[in-house]
């Protein structure tokens, strides 16, 4: 355990998303005693959506004592099935029945995922976001060191160090703004990060939010609504991730919450946010429009989309950010989507935010002394351990999206050949999260161990 004066550092965290929660819990587990988390929402504000729980996330949460509750409700994946929505040229040549374009639910590729638990010590599971965030939050609440300040927005960064400070704005009426000063500040304030913007401005860096041109519908179907349709029941009963892919669009779906809910997340060209102000990230979608966008997907998919009640279609803008040249200024560091937002195609955004929090706690606990210089160097060890890995995965997620969204042509034929070759044995999987080499790179790395082992060498060089 770190010396007393290190553990007495006053640490503030802005944002109680996956990154902020994991950072707070990891710090408390390392023995830090004064951790304050400022969250602008009045509660955790759970998004009704599923989330993939990859082994690299599970390994960390298990070390932090938050995994068993999540695992209890999550679904342990056996496999993934990638399905085409239209007959491709190859399929059309080999298909004997009279399927028309758009009617097919034919399997393009199939990948077994059961080897993952034996290889990486943790399974690849899928769960509900509220279960993931709620379990980390509950674990934080069991730690006396962590204090949550909800309904309070951090605004107006006054200083990034040596004593970072900002103004806290309570949202309740009559709440007076007050200054907050700490020894170390973590900005886990999401893709729209105010702290990042102010940091970049200070250094005349103009890295921008990138419009991906993609948007997503996030849908949760109740088991009872699928109960009268044997084909849909079969989907919710399988421990499987199914991905239906088509030109510029796909749908990923899996059961969560002990198979009581079927989670669907779509990706389609962004037609509705393009004209909206950049602050807009979610909007109420139109069901007829959703049905039209996926009008050429197979009937099974369309029946599921049709189960979404009118008025309950929610569309998300998918935005990312240009890579940043740094994540740390003085005694302030960025965490999670604030510094490496990603497209969801690799299912690693939250996992990477959790890796950030775990590494932060390891490096701060290794501080050899309490001084602004030492804190800054420890934060830069965090940046060194994390930055290249996080940005590699951001790029890989974008590449996977490009491969899945191919239109007719040679590139798509090659992709479909790769999918088809999986039936005969091993080979590259164009849907990258299911690729064994990608999984080795992502799941096989224990970032806490790396931070432990490499801290002194990196620290000495800074
Ligand atoms: C469609 C979709 C599917 C996804 N699927 C997966 C998946 O399967 N697996 C996975 O690992 N990841 C997935 N992700 C990514 C993942 O959801 C995000 O990467 C992750 O939630 C980021 O966490 P964060 O804590 O960095 O940011 P956020 O979750 O955005 O949290 C930021 C928090 O900060 C608060 N905040 C912001 N500004 C302030 C302020 N000024 N003061 C106080 N509080 C503030 C916000 O209210 C929020 O609570 C998916 C994303 C999308 C869009």
TrEMBL record:
Gene Ontology MF term list: FAD binding; monooxygenase activity
Transmembrane segments: 6-28
Keywords: FAD, Flavoprotein, Membrane, Monooxygenase, Oxidoreductase, Transmembrane, Transmembrane helix
Pfam families for this protein: FAD_binding_3
Domain of life: Eukaryota
Protein name, per record: FAD-binding domain-containing protein
Coiled-coil features, chain-numbered ranges: none
Chain ranges of the FAD-binding domain: 10-199
Family per record: Belongs to the paxM FAD-dependent monooxygenase family.
Lineage: Eukaryota, Fungi, Dikarya, Ascomycota, Pezizomycotina
């Amino acid at each position: 355990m770190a010396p007393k004066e290190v553990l007495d550092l006053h640490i503030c965290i802005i944002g109680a998303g996956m990154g902020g929660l994991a950072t707070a819990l990891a710090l408390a587990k390392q023995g830090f005693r004064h951790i304050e988390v400022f969250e602008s929402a009045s509660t955790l504000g759970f998004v009704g959506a599923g989330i993939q729980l990859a082994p690299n996330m599970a390994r960390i949460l298990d070390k932090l004592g938050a995994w068993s509750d999540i695992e209890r409700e999550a679904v342990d994946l056996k496999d993934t099935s990638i399905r085409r929505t239209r007959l491709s040229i190859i399929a059309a040549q080999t298909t004997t029945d009279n399927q028309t374009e758009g009617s097919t639910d034919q399997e393009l590729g199939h990948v077994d995922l059961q080897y993952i638990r034996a290889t990486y010590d943790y399974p690849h599971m899928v769960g509900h976001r509220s279960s993931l965030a709620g379990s980390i939050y509950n674990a934080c609440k069991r730690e006396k060191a962590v204090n949550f300040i909800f309904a309070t927005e951090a605004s107006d960064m006054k200083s990034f160090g040596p004593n970072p400070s900002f103004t806290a704005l309570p949202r309740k009426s009559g709440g007076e703004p007050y200054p907050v000063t700490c020894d170390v500040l973590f900005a886990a304030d999401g893709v729209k990060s105010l702290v990042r913007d102010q940091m970049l401005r200070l250094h005349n860096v103009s890295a921008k939010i990138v419009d991906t041109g993609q948007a997503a519908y996030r849908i949760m179907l109740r088991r009872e609504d699928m109960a009268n349709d044997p084909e849909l029941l079969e989907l919710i009963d399988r421990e499987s991730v199914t991905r239906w892919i088509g030109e510029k669009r796909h749908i990923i779906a899996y059961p969560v919450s002990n198979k009581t809910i079927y989670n669907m997340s779509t990706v389609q060209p962004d037609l509705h946010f393009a004209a909206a102000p950049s602050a807009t990230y979610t909007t109420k979608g139109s069901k007829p429009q959703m049905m039209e966008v996926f009008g050429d997907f197979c009937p099974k998919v369309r029946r599921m989309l049709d189960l979404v009640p009118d008025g309950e279609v929610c569309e998300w803008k998918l935005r990312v950010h240009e890579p940043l040249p740094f994540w740390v200024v003085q005694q302030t560091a960025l965490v999670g989507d604030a510094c490496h937002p990603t497209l969801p195609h690799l299912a690693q955004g939250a996992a990477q935010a959790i890796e950030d929090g775990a590494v932060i706690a390891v490096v701060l606990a290794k501080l050899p002394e309490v001084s602004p210089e030492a804190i800054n160097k420890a934060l830069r060890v965090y940046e060194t351990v994390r930055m290249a890995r996080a940005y590699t995965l951001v790029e890989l997620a974008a590449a996977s999206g490009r491969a899945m969204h191919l239109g007719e042509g040679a590139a798509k034929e090659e992709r479909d050949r790769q999918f088809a070759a999986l039936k005969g044995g091993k080979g590259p999987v164009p849907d990258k999260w299911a690729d064994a080499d990608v999984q080795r790179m992502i799941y096989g790395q224990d970032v806490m161990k790396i931070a432990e082992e490499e801290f002194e060498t990196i620290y000495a060089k800074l």
